[in-house]
Amino acid sequence: MKEIAIGILASMFFAVTFILNRSMELSGGSWIWSSSLRFIFMIPFLFLIVLFRKNLKQVITEIMKQPFQWFCWSFVGFVLFYAPITYAAAYGPGWLVAGTWQMTIVAGTLLGPLFFKTIYSKNGQVKVRQKIPLKSLYISIFILFGVVLIQLQKADSLTINEIMIGVLPVVIAAFAYPLGNRKMMEVCDGRLDTFQRVFGMTLASLPFWLVLSVYGFIEVGTPSSEQISQSFIVAICSGIIATTLFFIATDRVQHHQGKLASVEATQSTQVLFVIIGEVFLFSSPLPSGIAWGGLLIIVIGMLLHSFYTKQMNTKPKLRVIYNTKAQKF
Q1: 3-state secondary structure 107-136
Q2: Is the per-residue pLDDT at 324 higher than 50?
Q3: How far apart are CA 4 and CA 196, in angstroms?
Q4: ∠ at Cα 246 (229, 266), nearest 5°?
Q5: Nearest to residue 79, comparing CAs of 203, 197, 209?
Q6: What's the mean pLDDT in 102-113?
Q7: Collapsing DSSP states into helix, strand and coil, what is residue 328?
Q8: d(C-alpha 324, C-alpha 322), whole Å
Q9: For range 281-307, the mean pLDDT
Q10: Rounded to whole angstroms, how far apart are CA atoms 238 and 248?
Q11: More confident residue, 74 or 10
Q12: Sign for the pseudo-dihedral over CA of 180, 185, 189, 192
């Protein structure tokens, strides 16, 4: 339950991304700067946090031990996640991008078989491939249906081109984010805390953002002061606060695919926060009747996830005995 609450709080700060990215595009800013500036601004803040906590050396040591893993999965989790989202915001409204992003609640569940867990038996430690948690998948699909209902109220105003450009990049991002996050949890194997992992991934992805910045300077020139200030807000709210909260929640349930899927499903509430933000900032109309039905489905779906997670927490833990020692699995 606590992890789900943390996930919902994170999604509120994540919503800032979709609202301000669209705002920057409407004011003439380039998606190139919207994406790269966020992570460039994150570096000094995360550096100071890790330095203050006196565990900077450990992050550098971990990166040097497995540099390919760090650069590869940081690229997947951060670059392939955020660059497509900002690109999509240049061609589609914030509600469309935020709504499509909810594919991640199903994507995260489907990624389960790509990972292994260690169990203990009379024969010692055994690595077993994770299974897709079907109950969590069904609930996530139910939530996704609610998201689709919200999108229907404005879908008739979109062209095919807007749908293709505004949707496909976000689908890529929806799979890349949970994949990069889970792979890095596997690489770190509990040796780094959340702040260290976020800093390490941001640092490892920095070369890609710097290259993109050079490309942006050549293609569109320097960013405006308004885009710089808004990117700074996104970096703080979404890049540091939201990412850290979300990673804390996923770290706490990383060894249980069902609970992990429940935490990742909290991202569906971003649609609610985006709608509220666009109503207040852009004077967007309130949802229609069918959209309210979608909102109700999302709320019910999150309650089901909470109930399912609580139910799993009350299940007795199994033990097997070997070598006169009890081991959990």
Answers
A1: HHHHCHHHCEEEEEECCEEEEEECCCCHHH
A2: no
A3: 22
A4: 105
A5: 209
A6: 76
A7: strand
A8: 5
A9: 74
A10: 14
A11: 74
A12: positive
Range of the domain at 258: 2-328
CB-CB contact of 35 with 97 (8 Å): no
Instruction: Give how many domains the chain has, as a whole number.
Output: 1
Contact 95, 278 (CB under 8 A): yes
Q: How far is CA 101 from CA 169, 208, 329, in A?
A: 10, 22, 34
Rounded distance between C-alpha atoms, residue 284 and residue 143, angstroms:
23
Tokens at 105, concatenated: 């609640």
Q: What are phi and psi of 319, to 5 degrees?
A: -135, 150
- The identity of residue 130, as a single letter, is Q
Task: Specify the DSSP class assigned to residue 323.
Answer: T
What contacts 24+ positions apart, CB below 8 Å, involve 226-229? 226/24, 226/27, 226/29, 227/24, 227/27, 227/29, 227/30, 227/33, 227/34, 227/37, 228/37
Structure tokens at 35: 């994406």
User: Per residue, what are the HEC states of 173-231?
Assistant: HHHHHHHHHHHHHHHHCCCCCHHHHHHHHHHHHHHHHHHHHHHHHHHHCCCCHHHHHHH
Report angle CA 297, 298, 299 to the nearest 5 degrees. Answer: 90
pLDDT band of residue 209 (cuts 50, 70, 90) is very high
Q: Dihedrals φ, ψ of 283, to 5°?
A: 55, 35
Q: What type of residue is 255?
A: H
